[in-house]
Design a protein that fits this description.
Length: about 475
């Protein structure tokens, strides 16, 4: 099959979150299964810092090679993409994002003609590429080149919808009738994602659990009615993990490599992490880690409540990430008060992220909602036991551990509250104190397999359908 994958960010060229990891890995997994794949993204200023050779195609387009034969094509426009951020800066989103990403969508479809690549399927990801199905079924429906091209739209996080003031609609150069309840209109504003859901041939999410959740008012973000109308064309496929990047046996960022047959190297990584983060070196004290956005969606409200009362606890914690200013300030105050127990790292640091996964005993993911989650899969591979809220992809992959039966692979709390979260942590600490059982649990979770190959096979079946 011929497949185009469209995404606003792709590893190793540009990244703000897990979307980039997904679209960096899925095309290569599809290629390995015999599919013909190209990827299309904007050429941000950071693309040139990726270390991958970028070649000029024609004015407005360039490309790079990844894998054996897969190409990543870049849509060029210095006025739109030569900026410090992908979507905005600390002060907020760029005010011209409607223009930036409508240009990306239109230019992506133009590119297919330029390179004479007529795909069977265009796989769009999130709101930034959601106009592609709209253009195909409106402005381009009479163009024979685009005839019979099908579209899949994957929703990685329904909360991000590409919303803009209705006054900007004329800038899209679409028929005014599309701004209504059966098109772009969403509570008086424009919604790229809503339109993409309506006009795409199939809607996909990144876990079966999340696919079910977004049909409810609690998780539907106002789009549950639209999604219910496409229920027969909605599914969930859990993301895979790129084990060429996330593997403690080969990870160059670690203090010492290890694997499931001999995970003793975790002790060296724990000591190295404690030293580098300024924590007291204590191999017997459980070390807990968090890597992610410091935002309520990621459960940082629950986490910050617990951290503020850590002074007399029998655990250490290291946090890596950036987010809401109020959490920055709150956590900075705690870090100054108990630096031997709590290390706060307000930045993006890929090396430190790898070392947290390897050096910690438990990995915290108290997300209020989590469409898929990669952190729990990474922590499994590194023998770091996840503590998660039962939602979305976390519920699909983490089973609560029972110390008596030895069933389960992590610690799960069912009710979103500080008390329940703390209870799950305490159950984890209790299990950690029973060293033989904990060692067996580590070896067990390190053998779990969430490779991209299985997920890619499911995507191929979806494309064929």
């Amino acid at each position: 099959m011929k497949i185009v994958i469209c995404s606003s960010e792709v590893v190793p060229f540009a990244k703000t979150g897990g979307l980039a990891d997904v679209v960096g890995a899925l095309p290569l997994a599809l290629e390995n299964l015999g599919q013909e794949v190209i990827v299309v993204m904007p050429r941000y200023s950071c693309v040139d810092k990726s270390g991958v050779e970028i070649k000029k195609l024609k004015p407005g387009f360039s490309y790079a090679n990844i894998g054996k034969s897969t190409k990543v094509y870049f849509i060029e426009n210095e006025a739109y993409y030569d900026r410090s951020g992908l979507y905005g800066e600390k002060t907020g989103d760029y005010p011209d994002n409607l223009l930036r990403f409508s240009y990306y969508c239109k230019s992506t479809l133009d590119l297919l003609k330029v390179i004479n690549f007529k795909p069977d399927v265009i796989h769009c990801n999130d709101w930034q590429s959601a106009l592609i199905p709209v253009y195909l079924k409106t402005k381009l429906k009479k163009d024979s080149f685009y005839k019979n091209i099908k579209t899949v739209l994957t929703v990685h996080n329904l909360a991000y919808q590409g919303s803009f003031p209705r006054e900007q609609f004329p800038s899209l150069n679409l028929d005014g009738s599309l701004f209504d309840v059966n098109g772009f209109e969403f509570y008086g504003n424009i919604s790229f994602l809503k339109a993409g859901i309506i006009f795409s041939d199939f809607v996909n999410t990144v876990s079966q659990g999340y696919a079910a959740e977004i049909l409810t008012k609690e998780f539907g973000c106002g789009l549950e009615g639209v999604l219910l109308s496409k229920k027969d064309k909605l599914s969930g496929i859990i993301n895979g993990l790129d084990y060429s990047v996330w593997n403690p046996k080969t990870d160059k960022h670690l203090f010492k490599n290890y694997d499931a047959s001999d995970p003793s190297g975790k002790e060296n990584n724990k000591e190295g992490l404690q030293k580098s983060c300024g924590l007291s070196v204590n191999k017997n004290m459980p070390l807990l880690g968090f890597v992610g956005r410091l935002a309520e969606q990621k459960g940082i409200d629950l986490l910050s409540d617990i951290i503020q009362n850590m002074a007399n606890s029998n655990m250490q914690m290291v946090i890596l990430g950036t987010g809401d200013l109020k959490y920055h300030l709150l956590l900075e105050e705690v870090a100054k008060r108990i630096p031997h127990l709590f290390s706060l790292n307000l930045k993006f640091d890929d090396v430190l992220a790898h070392r947290i996964y390897a050096g910690c005993d438990m990995f915290l993911m108290p997300s209020r909602y989590e469409p898929c989650g990669l952190g729990q899969m990474i922590s499994f591979k590194y023998g770091t036991v996840p503590v998660v809220y039962k939602t979305g992809g976390l519920a699909d992959t983490v089973v609560d551990y029972n110390a008596d039966s030895k069933n389960g692979n992590g610690f799960v709390f069912d009710s979103y509250s500080k008390e329940e979260f703390l209870g799950a942590i305490k159950r984890g600490i209790s299990a950690y104190s029973k060293r033989d059982g904990w060692s067996a649990l580590i070896k067990k979770i390190m053998k779990l397999n969430f490779s991209w190959e299985e997920s890619a096979r499911k995507y191929i079946n979806l494309y064929k359908s």
